Amino acid sequence: MTTKPLIVITGASSGFGAEIAKLFNQSGFPMLLLGRRIDKIEALPLDFKNVMIKKVDVTDLNLFKEAVQDAEKIYGPTDLLVNNAGVMLLGNLETQDPKEWETMLTTNVLGVLNGMTIVLETMKQNNRGTIINMSSIAGFKAFTNHAAYVASKFGVHGATETVRQEVAAHNVRVSLVAPGAAETELLSHTTDQQALSDYNSWKQTMGGITLDPIHVAQTVKFIYDMPQNVTIREIDISATKQE
Ligand code: NDP
């Protein structure tokens, strides 16, 4: 029987989410890990004793809520929700299929709103809890070929700060991590070859060296490890050479 509280991580099947899962698993936290490709979560190098895995699309509020309720029945209330799931499909606004904008806006914005609304009521009742939303440097700075992605991440910034203010009096913390470029699966879904080529040229401006996802995971843990009466509102983190 574990005495540590429940950590919920969305987008745990790859990239930042997988690293965050590994880090909290090493510290013995029970976890609910969410993603659509659960075979990838099952293949992570974790101690699965106190790990629940659920196939959840974060845009599906009911499915997301049921998964959290199932985990809370076993492990108690969620103490940390990491709203990490996201998608980036680069493209020029004039030529990009609007379905790609919709995918980014629903996953990156609605997914985060869904996560927050699912856990907030219980956190407020318990007078404790932490939500960490994964935004991006593209959440406060524009980049060519990123119109819908930038729109979605500016949205994450705005929603995070709004909810932080709304629930601060209940001792609930709402924080934001805004990473720069990192090598994950994120770029692999972009189909626009010109946008990909532009991105890779831009990456050379920092010597091709991007963030290691482990440092994003450590940032999430650092925010969580602060005392409950301290909220780190936002951390922006990038490779040193990123402009
Ligand atoms: P990955 O593509 O490696 O991981 C994205 C994760 O999100 C996957 O686990 C994927 O799981 C999950 N996901 C995507 N869509 C959905 C959905 N509809 N429902 C549930 N899960 C979903 O990329 P990263 O690790 O890089 O991305 C994690 C977060 O970090 C994203 O929010 C991204 O925008 C942000 N970010 C990334 C940066 C980078 O350069 N890599 C920089 C700044 C921010 P599955 O497909 O199994 O559902």
From TrEMBL:
Keywords: Oxidoreductase. Gene3D superfamilies: NAD(P)-binding Rossmann-like Domain (3.40.50.720). Pfam families: adh_short. This is SDR family oxidoreductase. SUPFAM superfamilies: NAD(P)-binding Rossmann-fold domains (SSF51735). The keyword Oxidoreductase applies. InterPro entries: NAD(P)-bd_dom_sf (IPR036291), SDR_fam (IPR002347). The keyword Oxidoreductase applies. The lineage of its organism: Bacteria, Bacillati, Bacillota, Bacilli, Lactobacillales. Belongs to the short-chain dehydrogenases/reductases (SDR) family. PANTHER family: DEHYDROGENASE/REDUCTASE SDR FAMILY MEMBER 11, DEHYDROGENASE_REDUCTASE SDR FAMILY MEMBER 11.
